[in-house]
């Protein structure tokens, strides 16, 4: 993909900046040669893998591999539909063909009809022209090498238009994703502030429970201290918070990348979900659990948006 973009950059077909972009877009271009004009239309939509569909005139099907290669150099994933049409630049490339056999058959049929109805029927020129197949327009087919001379530049410019639209949509996606990543970071910071309070809350809860049962205990009772220490170790989420912070930083860095990042963002979303899930199960705290639920809700929105990114 990078090589294809560099080629378009060198030709001045795409802008020098290469921001994150979405998988949806449209591009169209026409190129006129001495004998032929090629029109290329490219539309793209979301798809996990690269799926290129090419529609060429039957006489030019051997160019499909070359067209596919050009598209794949610029597109890493998504369903991309390429429609290429050829038009003769002059009427000289077109001719009218007469089906003599069909014309004679039509004339004989009219004669038979005259006998059947008992009066002479004389077909007019309009009658012959209205009979499908008697007179047809035949268009000459361009030779593949000749056609490629106009198809290639038209394809380049259509790809440029597609890339520009994808980049524009990608910029809007980037702004939205950055805001949502900041929301996740705020949740992470709030959880980090709440986490150290968990052992003390557990000690207070355990002490109250024992007192409610009428059991008198010392403030520094060894058994209580041991129970609190075990609880603190079991509900420690420092590692998960550290990894979550790393994933969020990496996510933000990917958004500034000049490469295709869609698959990487998909993977990071899975890792972020895993850390949030572990934090929620280990923390054993209602307030932290609420923060985790809010973060997961935001992450699901991020995941949906990431699926639109190439």
Number of domains: 3
Structural class: alpha+beta
The percent range for strand residues is 5-15%
Supply Rg.
Answer: 35 Å
How many helical elements? Answer: 10
Counting DSSP E segments of at least 2 residues, the number of strands comes to 6
Largest sheet: 4 strands, mixed
General form: elongated
What does the average pLDDT come to?
A: 81
Give the helices and strands as they follow along the chain: HEEEHEEHHEHHHHHH
In whole angstroms, the N-to-C terminal distance is 11 Å
Share of helical residues: 55-70%
> Assembly type of the shown chains?
single chain
Low-confidence stretches: none
Strand order of the largest sheet: 1-2-4-3
Detailed description of the structure:
The chain is of the alpha+beta class. The chain folds into 3 domains: 2-90 and 142-166, Ribosomal Protein S5, domain 2 (2-Layer Sandwich); 100-133, no CATH class; 170-306, no CATH class. It is built from 10 helices and 6 strands, in the order H-E-E-E-H-E-E-H-H-E-H-H-H-H-H-H. The chain has helices at residues 2-10, 64-74, 100-117, 125-130, 144-194, 198-212, 222-234, 238-255, 262-283, 286-306, and strands at residues 25-32, 36-45, 50-55, 78-88, 94-98, 135-139. The strands form 2 sheets. The chain has a 4-stranded mixed sheet. The chain has a two-stranded antiparallel ribbon with strand order 5-6. Helix 2 links the parallel strand 3 and strand 4. The longest helix is centred in the middle third of the chain and has 51 residues, at 144-194. 25% of the residues are buried.
């Amino acid at each position: 993909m990078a090589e294809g973009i560099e080629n378009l950059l060198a030709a001045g077909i795409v802008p020098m900046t290469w921001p994150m972009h979405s998988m949806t877009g449209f591009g169209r271009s026409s190129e006129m040669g001495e004998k032929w004009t090629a029109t290329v239309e490219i539309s793209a939509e979301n798809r996990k893998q690269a799926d290129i569909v090419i529609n060429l005139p039957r006489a030019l099907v051997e160019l499909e591999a070359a067209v596919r290669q050009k598209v794949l150099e610029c597109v890493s994933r998504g369903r991309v539909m390429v429609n290429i049409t050829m038009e003769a630049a002059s009427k000289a490339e077109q001719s009218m063909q007469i089906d003599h056999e069909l014309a004679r058959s039509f004339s004989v049929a009219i004669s038979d009809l005259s006998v059947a109805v008992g009066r002479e029927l004389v077909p007019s020129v309009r009658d012959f022209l209205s009979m499908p197949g008697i007179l047809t327009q035949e268009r000459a087919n361009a030779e593949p090498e000749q056609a490629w001379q106009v198809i290639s530049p038209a394809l380049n410019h259509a790809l440029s238009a597609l890339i520009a639209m994808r980049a524009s949509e990608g910029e809007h996606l980037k702004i939205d994703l950055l805001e949502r990543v900041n929301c996740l970071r705020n949740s992470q910071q709030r959880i980090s502030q709440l986490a150290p309070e968990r052992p003390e809350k557990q000690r207070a809860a355990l002490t109250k429970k024992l007192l409610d049962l009428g059991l008198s205990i010392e403030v520094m009772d060894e058994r209580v201290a041991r129970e609190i220490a075990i609880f603190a170790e079991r509900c420690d989420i420092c590692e998960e918070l550290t990894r979550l912070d790393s994933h969020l930083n990496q996510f933000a860095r990917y958004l500034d990348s000049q490469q295709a990042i869609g698959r990487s963002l998909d993977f990071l979303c899975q890792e972020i979900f895993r850390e949030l899930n572990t934090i929620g199960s280990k923390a054993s705290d209602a307030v932290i659990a609420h923060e985790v639920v809010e973060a997961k809700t935001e992450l699901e929105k991020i995941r949906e948006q990431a699926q639109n990114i190439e």
